[in-house]
Amino acid sequence: MDQVPGSPQEPQDARGDDGLPGCYRHPDRPSGIRCTRCNRPICPECMVSASVGFQCPDCVRGGSGTGHSPRATAPRTLAGGTVAADRRLITKILLGLNAAVFVAVLATGGPTSPLPDRLDLLGLAFDPARYQLVGVAEGEWYRLLTAMFLHQQVAHIAFNMLSLWWLGPPLEAALGRLRFTALYLLSGLGGSALSYLLAAQNQPSLGASGAIFGLLGATAVLMRRLNYDMKPVLILLALNLGFTFLWPHIAWQAHVGGLIVGAAVAFGMVHAPRDRRNAVHVATCAVAVLAIAAVVWVRTLQLVG
């Protein structure tokens, strides 16, 4: 196919095994999306939402030349968020929060210290003298959130944080900081809610795995939206789900809950119509919050009753 007159030439080695050209800034990333102005292939990290299609960062910096206002030509991510200079900032903050909480637990005595007992996800606990409502069932809903940042072992936090560092930056670049933060937190809350609903009454649980599975589901949705090859992410998802159900002492409920919520929220974010994108994003997150609250409310009624 002929090059568009005046457009830069693609790297000669930028075509992958699947026939898709590589991003002109990241040749190792095959992409089926091209800049609407210069026709160069661009990956999710380089996409800037335009009035029609997507543009590359170079064309955005060069200006449209159409007389649009600065607001109309402001760089936007795939989902309509503001393009940030550091597209890994939220990922780094989440990594820092998880690491800080893990160090705080170790400093106060490790997994047997009072800190995990006050912050993990717990429904109805057994007291030697009587059954006593504690945790979420007693109204401590904050446990749905704080349990996401607790890890019991070094291997546990290492696996989750490596997954966050791998999955987080591409999603943060494609969604923008605010939407990525909402995706992560809602995924984690969804995992906590399903764990609270289905796990044993006196079984505590903790970890960021629900949020990580949400990011994995969101990655699959994003790749499908961009017409990428789905085989790698589907294989990764199958392996993680197999590990979830075959390995003992894993809260599979949190993994499945996070996966469902993460995929659903991401779908609403990347498929929203351009002319009412913000409204659809707010509605998507609101529905997710209401669904999580409903699950927690139903389970609490079961325990109290």
TrEMBL record:
Q: Does the keyword Flavoprotein apply?
A: no
| The keyword Metal-binding is annotated on this UniProt entry | no
Q: Known EC number(s)?
A: 3.4.21.-
Q: Which Pfam families match?
A: Rhomboid (PF01694)
Molecular-function GO terms, alphabetical = peptidase activity
Give start and end of each Peptidase S54 rhomboid domain: 139-270
Which residues does the annotated region (Disordered) include? Answer: 1-24
Instruction: State the signal peptide span.
Output: none
- Sorted alphabetically, which Gene3D superfamilies does this protein's record hold? Rhomboid-like
Class of enzymatic activity (EC top level): hydrolase
Family membership = Belongs to the peptidase S54 family.
Q: What is this protein called?
A: Rhomboid family intramembrane serine protease
- Native species of this protein? Streptomyces bugieae
The organism that produces this protein has a lineage beginning with: Bacteria, Bacillati, Actinomycetota, Actinomycetes, Kitasatosporales
